[in-house]
From TrEMBL:
It comes from the Bacteria. SMART domains: Aamy. Belongs to the glycosyl hydrolase 13 family. One of its GO terms (biological process) is oligosaccharide catabolic process. PANTHER family: ALPHA-AMYLASE FAMILY MEMBER (PTHR10357), NEUTRAL AND BASIC AMINO ACID TRANSPORT PROTEIN RBAT (PTHR10357:SF179). The keyword Hydrolase applies. Pfam families: Alpha-amylase, Malt_amylase_C. The lineage of its organism: Bacteria, Bacillati, Bacillota, Bacilli, Lactobacillales. Keywords: Glycosidase, Hydrolase. Residues 13-405 form the Glycosyl hydrolase family 13 catalytic domain. One of its GO terms (molecular function) is alpha-amylase activity. This is Glycosyl hydrolase family 13 catalytic domain-containing protein.
Amino acid sequence: MKTNWWKKATIYQIYPRSFQDTNADGIGDLPGIIQRLDYLAFLGIEAIWLSPVYQSPNEDNGYDISDYQAIDPDYGTMKDMDTLIEEAKKRNIKIIMDLVVNHTSSEHPWFQSALHDPKSEFHDFYVWRKDIDGRPPNTLQSNFGGSAWTLVPELGEYYLHLHAKEQPDLNWENKMMRYEIYRMMNYWIEKGVGGFRLDVIDLIGKEPDQLITKNGPKLHELLQEMNQNTFGEYDLVTVGETWGATPEIAQLYSDEDRDELSMVFQFEHINLDKQPGKRKWDLKTLDPKELHHVFSKWQTELTGKGWNSLFWNNHDLPRIISRWGDDQEFRVLSGKMLAIYLYFLQGTPYIYQGEEIGMINYPIKSIDEVDDIESRRMYDERISLGYTEEEIITSINAKGRDNARHPMQWDDSKQGGFTTGIPWLPAGDSSEINVAAALDDPDSLFYTYKKLIQLRKELSVITEGTFESIQTEDAAVLAYIRKHDGEEIVVVVNFSNKPARFLLDATQQIKEILIHNYEKEISQTLLPYEAYAVLLT
Ligand code: GLC
Ligand code: CA
């Protein structure tokens, strides 16, 4: 296994709109991120995944780009961006750009040209098909609901959009388009960014006529071509958002010898509270043992063959403590348990802003409170299908993306120190959950994350060791062991709010407690959400 900086590093995701506002317009901005770099350096992270800050009409908050080489005025200027890269570098932090190249905004000049002039060279940058008897070319559905095809009556053609109609899909069959994208990526590489997070990258090899969207036949060829023409020669990190990856597919993306990406960011564990075959909105109760099974599978099947991301949260997911922990009585304890379980696995951990202080979901009562395009589209669709208002709001409260997008809570002042103006999305209750309080409390979740990040830098067993699951009798107790070069770490967590039992093998002697979320001896009884990691002799 090669030693790359990103194997021991922890990456912090910033959703710029909600991180820190500096000019009172209620929208987070680049100067705000610069102001908070010391905080991030103190936490110990080594890279920032920056959600899109490019020029955008913001139909999908920046995941609809109208100019890849301009900064949206909401966030600042290109000069601010250069300053951010430079200031981050001084603190040993790299900036990872979010690369959204499956689609552009419908306001991108390429699409505008394609739309108004079918003879333009840009027309073929997108995916167009004729109607079939007045109907869309086929049944492909958008990820946000409804048909993936929209008719342009003046052209008599439909264009493909696997997300909103304001996000037309690029045609990766078109070589000129691909080289324009590579040129743009090289522009960012020359600016000194630390890498790219590749948005829905598993979609670029699509074969729409055969109803293939994910993992199309040309996907890996395309990624190899991208690698050769852009980041291949540099020491950059590249992480692909790959919803449909299995460990075998993950290997194709991230095998060191294949020259594609550094790692995948896959969601198998995240989907475990979804009813099989249904959309994410259709919930079922999480079974901790099933969760452990999925993690164990990835740990054993990808090791030595590829690289995975470790995460509970991002800007598309509800807050993990509300989801699988307890956001009331055991907020901090359950947050620590979740972190301890994840941080001794092989892979690269990602923290989503606010996760390190245990931010929780923001429940809504009515659709008027929702900004997110995905939730709004789902609402309209399900209302027309006859779902009740109550059912839909329950789904949005459980899974809606806005849960993660309410402003970062810096202190207990009005608007949580995020803005002195009116935030674009209301601020949650920051009276207890905020950065200032977390920094003041040596027992806070923040210091658990800081410690875990540090341990990952120090103990190579975490990055390089083998993984074995430990059998446990109690349905809520999850345990595993990592081994490398005579070093052994055992991790035990109680994934529930009730006491449980677990006995370490009598032959296993504890040499050192690396981390433990209760101040008590390690014994057979695990208290609610108790979690520890120990080094064995
Ligand atoms: C990815 C992003 C999500 C966005 C979608 C379309 O899944 O994470 O926020 O809406 O792609 O770009
Ligand atoms: Ca602002």
